[in-house]
Amino acid sequence: MKFFLDTADLDQIAEAASWGVVAGVTTNPTLYARIGGKLADFPAHIQRICALCAGPVSAEAVGTTRADIIAEGQQLAALAPNVVVKVPTTIEGLAATKALAEKNIAVNMTLCFSVPQAIMAARAGATYISPFVGRFDDISEDGLAQLEDVVVAIENYEFDQQVNIIAASIRSAHHVTQAALMGADIATVPYDVLKKLVEHPLTDRGLASFEADWKKVITA
Ligand code: G3P
After folding, report:
1. Which of 17, 25, 58, 218 makes an SS bond possible with 86, Cβ 3.0 to 4.6 Å?
2. How many angstroms separate the alpha carbon of residue 167 from the centre of ligand 1?
């Protein structure tokens, strides 16, 4: 499983990239608003992210009609070769995905919450599909079970393009563990969760004991 970073924060992207584990970045309007992003600076900001991360960088189209999403998607894709256009899983989004895929523009269909949505996204030409785990949990459903259903269903079929499942709306190491065990291609993870993934109390305890014992060695 690859890790994408789910953020628009340049410092977080630069820091996590230095750990050697970040294969891509996903953004959305909420994440851009969270860093105080301004509309006029959005294209330049996506380009700054693309300069920090050579892998796929998802930038979301906010239009709701196919014409708007297609126009916006073409503008976003022109910003850098590694931009992936994020498109909502709706009828208009499917139509836009079909048109963008025909122009060889990679699409990440987002806000996916069901197997039929995922299969339709794949048939429309999406290269990435993002089932949301945490938000499904938020409504007292089982987000991980839903993700697993999508992974299995997509694996059952051949599609014209390679389809990558991105486990999105990830909130915990448990989400990441289960996504990896079920074979999700990618997990897109917020910075704070990504940091926690490398932490373990036994690692800390082992390190403390090694340090203490090494002090005995150097003072002997
Ligand atoms: O990529 C978007 C998705 O990960 C959103 O996560 O935590 O806002 O549900 P969240």
Report:
1. 58
2. 10
d(C-alpha 195, C-alpha 206), whole Å: 19
What's the confidence (pLDDT) of residue 110?
98
> What pLDDT does residue 175 have?
98
Q: What per-residue confidence (pLDDT) applies to 26?
A: 98
pLDDT given at position 5: 98
Q: Is the CB of 29 under 6 A from ligand 1?
A: no
CB 125 within 8 A of CB 97: yes
Is the CA virtual torsion 192, 189, 59, 33 positive or negative? negative
Nearest CA to ligand 1 atom 9: 169
126-175 tens-digit pLDDT: 999 999 999 999 999 999 999 999 999 999 999 999 999 999 999 999 99
- The rounded Å distance from CA 217 to ligand 1 centre is 48
Sequence-separated (6 or more) residues with CB below 8 Å from residue 167: 130, 131, 133, 147, 175, 176, 179, 184, 186, 187, 188
The answer to whether the beta carbons of residues 175 and 147 sit under 8 Å apart is: no
Whole-number Å distance, alpha carbon 202 to ligand 1 midpoint, is 30
Assigned token pair, 42: 């959005």
In SS3 terms, 76-111 reads as: HHCCCCCEEEEEECCHHHHHHHHHHHHCCCCEEEEE
Instruction: For ligand 1, pick from 4, 5, 6 the residue to mutate: most ligand atoms within 8 Å of CB.
Output: 6
Whether residue 6 has its Cβ less than 6 Å from ligand 1: yes
